[in-house]
């Protein structure tokens, strides 16, 4: 798969995850090594960690926490979400315990409060997360970020996994082989509507 195809067809896969196909560790290792090549801001690179969860009971406990938060949110705000996207998110959360691997990217140290440091903090995690997702896609796997538990249950999941208090779970990714190979570029706003030249609001 060429780079442009990988970059434009790596979707958040929720309905097409193969819950029954084992994900070998060496395949994950290859993707995580690629993710290590992502940019990070100076010392932040040394603060980043991955925690992989395969154990069925542990996944079930994380899934229960995710479900609790997500179901409450959907009850309140579900009507604001497009029906198809909602059904897709619900499918994943309601089956999260069946996903072969849950990958939790973490940062040692809690998020800073100023804009410069925040930018460095989160900006040192998401390039690695995205590279990981791209590398998975190139190998026939898919993933979706699924961070609902962070809202009310980050501490519960931290306790479950032995994550120290000063470590932030940046998110959680569901990882599995996909049941189809072909994904398409998604609809996005027109480039002219989101890109300005020289001054805010000034068209290209
Ligand atoms: C920071 C971040 C957090 C996200 N959190 C969730 C989430 O909690 N649940 C979910 O279903 N998708 C989540 N997503 C995936 C987005 O919903 C998805 O990227 C978006 O709908 C566009 O779809 P696509 O990735 O297939 O292009 C998240 C994505 C990002 C970048």
TrEMBL record:
The keyword S-adenosyl-L-methionine does not apply. Residues 9-175 form the Nitroreductase domain. Gene3D superfamilies: NADH Oxidase. The keyword Oxidoreductase applies. Keywords: Oxidoreductase. InterPro entries: Nitroreductase (IPR029479), Nitroreductase-like (IPR000415). PANTHER family: NAD(P)H NITROREDUCTASE YDGI-RELATED, NADH DEHYDROGENASE_NAD(P)H NITROREDUCTASE XCC3605-RELATED. Belongs to the nitroreductase family. This is Nitroreductase family protein. The lineage of its organism: Bacteria, Bacillati, Actinomycetota, Actinomycetes, Pseudonocardiales.
